[in-house]
Design goal:
The structure holds two protein chains of two kinds. By secondary structure, chain A is mainly α. Helix content of chain B is 72%, strand content 1%. The longest helix of chain B is centred in the middle third of the chain and has 28 residues. Chain B has a two-stranded antiparallel sheet with strand order 1-2. Classes of the chains: A mainly alpha, B mainly alpha. Chains A and B meet through helix 5, helix 6, helix 11 and helix 13 of A and helix 4, helix 5, helix 11 and helix 13 of B.
């Protein structure tokens, strides 16, 4: 666990390399989309200028971008954390719903608590529910050897349908005309940072969590062991690490983080639970984690980029008439280009094989 | 209980078959690429793009069959990208699939607005109509269920035994399974794991493409944003439920499709069971089966792992 100058330099080089790769990929993706915009008969420069203005043009825009960043940091962290233990949690979407449900129940039905306490209880409930849902997949993995990719796909559906049932029935806002719950008590709401925007202190909690997770992974014995399990299960077993328990733990914490994405949406901006309310934050978490190189700090930047694109897209549509869905193409191609970074190596190897 | 059985009429079974068909295409595709050792969570985006391109193909050619063909083609093409990224570049297959889903949702929604225009997005295009098989369709109960369906329903059903024979009775099927179980060992007996995986993944994309095109050309007759509505993910679940077997796929898709049909009709008939529980049922059942059977006997051994020549 030594942190000598050499270690710092190696890490700096690594970060610089992956950052430049990410920036190149973003540039290429913008270029590809520019061609698409041209083919559609629009001016890409005007479109991108509007996109920038929409995401960062004034404090209101920046506030909305940061508000959108918040849940993405949590789902990105969730996927990244599990991935450090070599687990692919594609169940962040379902865990997010579990967290949102628990938080909304605490926010509505627990009354008489002072503000900070009520908020903390809602957060704890959201984390616990997400952790339970993620932990269930962890349990199936460690006890029955069931692939977590498989189980989390199923658990997503179950959680989403269960929330749909709850908001249409047991916890629907009376008299039950709409598929939604009542609003959470004002004592359970996160304080708003920027007036008139959706930006709550949730963003600070998210960034704080990312820093804490980074600390946990690289500065504690727990993190070291968890990453050892991630690098090589065999080696971890040989070193006497209880691999199964770590897998369960990693999935639980990962699920808890995804649950917090639901929590901050509920007590930070939406205040009530609607069925099918998430625009795929959980699935975006996979891309965000990957773009952030499964590094908690990288996840913050990746989440910010994804959010800026989504928020900026509205302004782009108003100014130019280009559909907002274009930014999904940008996001997807960024990921593909980073995946495609191996292409040079692949090409070189092929040339060698041909020459041989 | 009486109310429950009253829902199970000819219309229910007919709807079940119709809802099963796109799932069955995608599930058979999923079985193929997973058996070869490649997982593709991008089936959702692939189906969506195929649904869109199918609509374009049908509109500009005036033929639903040509539309289906273009849908199959784009499905294969997208899968080829996934194959290149995950097989040749050995990149993370889950991330590649997630990227394909993002692009599929975004690009289809973008293109429908650009090509058909904002006001004419839901343009109805040449589509498939149910075919009544002469004489057989007049049989009471069975006729309307089995013999008044779209021709693609029959194609999907026929694919089940065809896939079964290919997978379990041909050399090529054996090759697919062997590169999914142990690519290194298959290479030593002269099989090319890379090429075999490529073919399996591309064919799988083509099948998912057929499923996507059926959704737009067979059911909706136009394109709508995110119209695949999670069926690509349901197919992934069905692959597991089917235990990577085409016959299992038919059973799995009938259960998933049946649950879908039942919740529609249950809602209309006012059944006591909340429709969300009907929708949930197949997933809970799949999980329960997995827990009982355990992970040891599950799936191809080398799934998700890239193959490198030694």
């Amino acid at each position: 666990m030594s942190v000598g100058p050499d270690a710092i330099r190696t890490r700096a080089i690594k970060v610089a390399k992956s950052t430049s790769l990410s920036l190149t990929a973003i540039g290429l993706a913008l270029l590809v989309s520019a061609v698409l915009i041209l083919l559609a008969g629009f001016n890409p420069l005007i479109a991108y200028a509007a996109l920038l203005k929409g995401a960062f043009g004034d404090s209101f825009a920046i506030g909305n971008t940061l508000a959108r960043t918040t849940p993405l940091i949590f789902t990105g962290l969730a996927v990244a954390f599990a991935f450090r233990c070599n687990l692919l949690n594609i169940g962040a979407e379902g865990q997010l719903y579990a967290g949102a449900l628990a938080s909304v129940v605490v926010g509505i039905f627990v009354t008489g608590l002072p503000t900070p306490l009520h908020i903390m209880l809602a957060i704890a409930a959201g984390f616990a529910a997400g952790a339970m849902w993620g932990g269930l997949a962890g349990l199936m993995k460690s006890q029955r050897g069931i692939n977590e990719i498989v189980s989390t796909i199923m658990l997503n559906f179950v959680a989403i349908f269960f929330v749909s049932y709850m908001v249409q029935g047991p916890i629907a806002e009376p008299p039950g005309f709409f598929h939604q719950t009542a609003q959470v008590a004002t004592t359970a709401r996160l304080p708003i940072i920027a007036p008139k925007s959706d930006l709550s202190i949730g963003i600070l909690i998210a960034v704080g969590c990312a820093i804490f997770i980074a600390y946990l992974l690289w500065r504690t014995p727990f993190g070291l062991r968890l990453r050892t399990v991630g690098r090589s299960e065999g080696a971890a077993r040989f070193a006497g690490i209880p691999v199964n328990r770590f897998m369960f733990g990693a999935m639980s914490i990962s699920g808890g983080l995804a649950g917090l994405a639901g929590t901050v949406e509920i007590i930070g901006s939406q205040y009530r639970l609607l069925d099918f309310f998430s625009p795929g934050y959980g699935f975006d978490g996979i891309a965000v984690a990957f773009l952030g190189r499964s590094d908690p700090i990288g996840v913050i930047f990746a989440a910010f980029l994804f959010a800026a694109l989504r928020i900026g897209a509205n302004q782009m549509q108003r100014t130019t008439g280009l559909p907002t869905s274009l930014v999904l193409v940008i996001q997807g191609t960024v990921i593909l280009f980073i995946l495609g970074a191996g292409i040079l190596q692949w090409y070189r190897q092929r040339q060698q094989e041909k020459g041989a | 209980m009486e109310a429950f059985f009253s829902v199970l009429d000819a219309d229910f079974f007919s709807a079940t078959l119709r809802l099963t068909t796109p799932l069955l295409f995608a599930t058979l595709g999923g079985i193929l690429n997973e058996r070869a050792g490649v997982i593709n969570i991008g089936l959702e985006g692939t189906m969506l793009m195929a649904a869109l391109i199918g609509v374009f193909g049908a509109w500009f050619s005036g033929s639903a069959w040509f539309g289906l063909f273009t849908g199959i083609l784009i499905g294969g093409l997208i899968a080829w990208i996934h194959a290149f990224v995950s097989i040749s570049l050995k990149a993370n297959q889950i991330v590649s699939g997630a990227a394909i889903n993002l692009i599929g949702v975004g690009l289809s929604s973008f293109l429908i607005r650009i090509v058909f225009g904002l006001k004419d997005q839901q343009r109805v295009v040449p589509h498939f109509e149910p075919v009544s098989v002469p004489y057989l369709s007049d049989i009471p109960l069975i006729g309307p269920i089995l013999f008044q369906q779209h021709s693609l329903v029959y194609v999907a059903l026929l694919l089940v035994p065809i896939m079964w024979v290919i997978l379990f009775r041909t050399r090529w099927g054996l090759m697919i399974t062997s590169v999914g179980e142990h690519p290194e060992a298959s290479a030593t007996v002269g099989i090319n794991p890379l090429r075999t995986r490529y073919i399996a993944v591309i064919l799988s994309g083509a099948l998912a493409g057929a499923g996507g095109a059926f959704l737009s050309l067979g059911q909706l007759h136009f394109f709508q944003d995110e119209m695949v509505a999670g069926r690509g993910f349901i197919a992934l679940a069905a692959v597991i439920f089917a235990r990577w077997n085409p016959v299992g796929a038919l059973i799995a898709c009938l259960i998933f499709g049946g649950a879908d049909a039942l919740q529609f009709r249950g809602q209309a008939a006012g059944l006591a069971v909340p429709h969300q529980f009907m929708l949930m049922f197949p997933y809970v059942l799949t999980l329960a089966i997995l827990v009982v059977v355990g992970g040891k006997s599950q799936g191809p051994a080398a799934i998700g792992q890239p193959y490198s020549k030694g």
